[in-house]
Amino acid sequence: MEEKSSSSSRSLIFQAPGIFNLYSDGTVDRLLPVPTTPPSHLFVDGVATKDLILDATKGVWVRIFLPQKRREKRLPVVLYAHGGAFCTGDPSWALFHDFCHRMALKSEAIWVSLNYRLAPEHRLPAAYEDGCLAFRWLRSQAEMQANGTGAEPWLDQFGDFSRLFLAGESAGGAVVFNVAMRISEEDREPVNVCGLLLVHPAFHTEAKRESMMDDDGSARTRAFYSFALPVGADLDHPLVNPLVPQAPSLNRLLSYPLVVLAVAEVDFRYDLTMKFFETVRAICENVHLIISRDQVHAFHLLDTDCEEALQLEQDLAAAICRNDIPSRL
């Protein structure tokens, strides 16, 4: 039954309870009462932050995290994309802000957290296009740094663009994966992309997971993705399933020295993600797997002090600091 909104000019056509309402005029009310953190140019617990607009028309912006402790004059740069099923989230959300804050400290790197366009207002591939926009902005910063023509001050003074990483979890993992695939054949100079850090990437398929199936999570995912994907597409669309025949060749990952894939064992995406890992490993030797046993999707954002979350962050930091991860993985 159609439910009227507070405005007489629009009616409610879809409700994701407690998350968002979609109306007949295309507008969206986002309902999640999520704690947010403002940026601070002053160092707070060892990290300073600032927000920069990349494209005001599209609403694309980034939050930069600069660690105070710096053993090197120049630091790796990490382009990070947050999760949220392509429908929710931004870099100010406390759980994403805090993760980047911790990782900036642990990896001694500059983290650049991307605010990309969200569904249902902006269906895929809008988020992937915004990820490419952010990468090309970073490349322009690297060019200005090299030419001495006024790059963003923190990146200009402290950034080492010969050590750039693409990182993201959940939907953000799919964002940076697709960015990497799209830019693989571009001239990326003077930037050197050293690696991809894909944490619980939002890869999906119409086939259900065979074991430990999270039915509630699967149903919720289908609801979100009905608005995130192009109209009429299902979960085997190449925008979210990199293993279907019509998806771009994974040989493009050979362009990158390191691919780190982190999976949570109790995640209905587990089977497809493991198949992705095996497929990539057959193509190149530069892919490494981190399995968090008995953990759910994106657990590290919520249970930040558990042993598995601390280990995951330590491994990601090692990949950035040493361009490698411990051999035990």
Task: Looking at this protein, list some descriptive labels.
7 helices; four-stranded antiparallel sheet; disordered N terminus; alpha/beta; 329 residues; globular; 12 strands; single chain
- Total number of beta strands: 12
| Main sheet: strand order | 5-6-8-7-9-10-11-12
Order of helices and strands: EEEEEEEHEHHEHEHEHEH
Helix content: 25-40%
Distance between the termini: 52 Å
Shape: globular
Give a structural overview.
30% of the residues lie in helices and 25% in strands. With 329 residues, it is of the alpha/beta class. The strands form two sheets. The chain has an eight-stranded mixed beta sheet, sandwiched between helices. It has a four-stranded antiparallel beta sheet with strand order 1-2-3-4, with no helix packed on it. Helix 1 packs across helix 7. The longest helix has 22 residues, at 126-147. The chain is globular and about 55 Å long. The N and C termini lie far apart (52 Å). The model is unreliable at 1-7 and 209-214 (pLDDT under 50).
At a glance:
The protein has 7 helices and 12 strands. The protein has 329 residues and is α/β, with parallel strands linked by helices.
